[in-house]
């Protein structure tokens, strides 16, 4: 297995925009969206509810959020209103869907099968990974991991 195989990156419709490079992270307790992504989606800053929270990463690094925003996520006939923490920092993905979304949607993400399955009134929905976005996401994460920190 390569590093590309152990991450799951998909494209979804969020707030009527197709958003690429959405990463699933079952270890993440919140959903996260980049401020830059909101700007590209023409969502005004006024929609963000100001609230600073501290997010702590796996290696202990911290990021302050700008606030929260609720956005409609659409998947093949199923809509869900989801809360996202907004961050203003460069990252290797546009959105991170964490346990909140996974549990709310009763979704089953599989890095092994490179897909997400979730129930709907019409049966099981299967979302395949976006292979090119996964490669780009992995390459970007490796570049940022290789950068030396400055004092």
Count helical runs. Answer: 3
CATH homologous superfamily classification:
Acid Proteases
What's the rounded overall pLDDT mean? 82
The largest sheet, given as strand count, sense and whether it forms a barrel, is: 6 strands, mixed, barrel
As residue ranges, the low-confidence spans are: 1-5, 145-151
Q: How many runs of DSSP E, i.e. beta strands?
A: 12
Order of helices and strands: EEEHEEEEEEHEEEH
CATH class (first level) name: Mainly Beta
State the CATH topology: Cathepsin D, subunit A, domain 1
User: How would you classify the helix and strand content by structural class?
Assistant: alpha+beta
Proportion of residues in extended strands: 35-45%
CATH architecture: Beta Barrel
Distance between the termini: 35 Å
Query: What is the CA-atom radius of gyration, in angstroms?
Result: 15 Å
Strand order of the largest sheet: 1-2-9-3-8-7
Residues in helices, as a percent range: 10-25%
What is the 3D form?
A: globular
Number of domains: 1
Verbal overview:
The protein has 151 residues and is α+β, with helices and mostly antiparallel strands. It has one domain: Acid Proteases (Cathepsin D, subunit A, domain 1, Beta Barrel). Helices cover 19% and strands 41% of the residues. The protein has three helices and twelve strands; from the N terminus they run βββαββββββαβββα. The chain has helices at 35-40, 99-104, 131-146, and strands at residues 9-14, 17-24, 32-34, 49-50, 54-56, 62-64, 67-75, 78-87, 95-97, 108-110, 115-120, 123-128. The strands form three sheets. A six-stranded mixed β-barrel has the order 1-2-9-3-8-7. Strand 7 and strand 8 form a beta hairpin.
């Amino acid at each position: 297995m390569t590093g590309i195989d152990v991450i799951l990156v998909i494209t979804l419709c969020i707030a009527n925009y197709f958003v690429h490079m959405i990463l699933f992270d079952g270890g993440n307790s919140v959903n996260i969206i980049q401020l830059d992504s909101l700007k590209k989606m023409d969502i005004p800053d006024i929609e963000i509810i100001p609230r600073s929270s501290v997010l702590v990463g796996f290696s202990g690094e911290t990021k302050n959020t700008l606030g929260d925003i609720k956005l409609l996520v659409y998947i093949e006939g199923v809509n869900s209103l989801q809360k996202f923490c907004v961050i203003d920092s460069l990252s290797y993905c546009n959105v991170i869907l964490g346990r909140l979304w996974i549990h709310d949607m009763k979704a089953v993400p599989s890095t092994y099968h490179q897909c997400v399955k979730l129930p709907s009134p019409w049966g099981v929905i299967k979302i395949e990974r976006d292979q090119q976005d996964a490669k780009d996401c992995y390459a970007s994460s490796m570049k940022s991991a290789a950068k030396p920190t400055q004092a």
